[in-house]
Input
Amino acid sequence: MKLNRTKLQQEIHELYNREHAEMGERGTLERLERAREWNLAPTLNAGGVLVFPHAGVLDCGHQIAACVNAALDSGADRVLVVSVLHAFTDEMEDARIRVANGEDPAQFPFYGIQGPGIDWRNEWEGDHALMSWRHFWNAETKRRGIKGPEVFERYPYLAGGHPERLPGIDELARLAENAVVVSTADPFHHGIGYGTPPEESYHPHEGGLELAREKIQEGIDTLARGDYWGYNQHCVQWKSDARDAGQVFRHLRGEMRGEILDMTYSDASDLYQKPKPTWVAAALMEWKKM
Output
């Protein structure tokens, strides 16, 4: 049965809004406090990158909150968020597949970088990737009684192994020079609802999380080497949605070493109306300048 991407997008927004409401102010602040386990502002100040998930906020909200805390604690005047842009139209998905198969991304109308203040395409407006980031950002700046630094959201699409060629990348590089950089990724989608054969589908606590950690680290190591095409294809194989965002922040920041600081998961079987196991790994990742 063909995936109804428009319907899925709507259902994801409804799910996120429900989870934010269920978490409430108390749950939001509790996660921000729990996130104090990590002091990550020095990584940002040294030119590194933090990567947070955008899976179910009830599962991974503390990881998102850790990056919000770090960005605010850094004292920076600007925060650049390099976001995932999901394929919520058949045309976007077709372009992504064809680029992964070696076609020139420049032939597709989505090729480039979207975001607020850019007079171009507006698919970013319907994306859910930064909904929970904005939720924690608003809550923490309110709690601190500050306006906070200026935040720039940017959504690259179809890097295709050559982030340096993306239209708008030079402007983005200039922006990044005077900003701390964070990004987002759900780097491992797994199970029956994501097209994994049933005999190869692992429940999270029955080998799934171990597999996820291994494969996510493989992706980190590939990107750390600057092997952009290899990373692109790794993301295809292991169903990471951050093929473009990862290539872009690595290009912007140069040589870094990445590691997983924390990992959990969100069950997605109800969302996709598929049998278990159908889930996504949620990881907090730190990239330090070498």
